[in-house]
């Protein structure tokens, strides 16, 4: 039997109300914020918070998972963004990658090979400068498992600019693959039962777009977590510093009967 989709388990109207409530909360928060609030402390993303019934297996924790969305969380002026691609330097040479991306008119401002990343960005300050220089990072799938050690806490502590995996090979359409990656989010399963994936962004995605992103993201998450719906205990929506609004909670048959009575 095929697994049910997100729309079979989650009420769309309830979800829409939750999204609108979060957007109203964010607007009020911004109006009341001190002008001295540090920009780095701001997190404009809406998260789908996922609570699993069990800790996921180690092979699922090792690397980030790309989750497709309907609408990109990047600013509208895509071709004005500063984007960086990290390659292995062996299967994909950095100079050849630059030439190909230029011929495709892709807004990748820099291509870094892994060895240069290791040699030139050892210090915290160098990593921080790299982090601040680009809006988004991509990495070919072969180097993705090596990046946490190379890029360190600057990139991975708050998970704001973890490089997005891309599957680039000689015969694939690089432009389509990078564009798909730009309309994706990352699911980094933790060593516990709670994880999160971005589904919206204040000032970028509208309410109805966030709702559509949410349902698309849930279907993507179901393809990754063990037992699909059977492995999920609860789903919530939240900003990083807001209350978490419930949109799904697993109940046993006994609990469901008790609630009805």
TrEMBL record:
Pfam families: Ribosomal_L1. It comes from the Eukaryota. The lineage of its organism: Eukaryota, Viridiplantae, Streptophyta, Embryophyta, Tracheophyta. InterPro entries: Ribosomal_uL1-like, Ribosomal_uL1/biogenesis, Ribosomal_uL1_3-a/b-sand. This is Ribosomal L1 domain-containing 1-like. Coiled coil: none annotated.
């Amino acid at each position: 039997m095929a697994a049910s989709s997100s729309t079979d388990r989650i009420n769309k109207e309830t979800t829409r109300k939750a999204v609108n409530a979060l957007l109203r909360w964010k607007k009020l928060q911004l109006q009341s914020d001190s002008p001295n609030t540090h920009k780095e402390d701001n997190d404009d993303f809406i998260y789908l918070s996922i609570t699993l019934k069990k800790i996921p297996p180690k092979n699922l924790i090792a690397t980030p998972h790309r989750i497709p969305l309907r609408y990109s969380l990047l600013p509208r002026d895509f071709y004005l963004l500063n984007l960086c691609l990290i390659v292995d330097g062996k299967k994909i040479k950095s100079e050849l990658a630059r030439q190909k991306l230029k011929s495709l008119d892709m807004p990748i401002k820099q291509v870094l090979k892994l060895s240069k990343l290791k040699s030139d960005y050892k210090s915290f300050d160098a990593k921080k400068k790299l982090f601040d220089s680009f809006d988004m990072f991509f990495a070919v799938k072969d180097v993705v498992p090596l990046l946490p050690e190379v890029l360190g806490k600057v990139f991975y502590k708050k998970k704001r600019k973890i490089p997005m995996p891309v599957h680039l090979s000689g015969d694939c359409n690089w432009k389509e693959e990078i564009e798909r990656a730009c309309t994706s989010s990352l699911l980094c399963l933790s060593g516990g039962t709670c994880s999160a994936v971005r589904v919206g962004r204040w000032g970028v995605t509208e309410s109805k777009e966030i709702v559509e992103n949410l349902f698309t993201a849930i279907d993507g998450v179901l393809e990754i977590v063990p037992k699909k719906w059977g492995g999920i205990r609860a789903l919530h929506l939240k900003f990083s510093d807001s209350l978490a609004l419930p949109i799904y909670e697993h109940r046993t048959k006994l609990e469901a009967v008790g609630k009805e009575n």
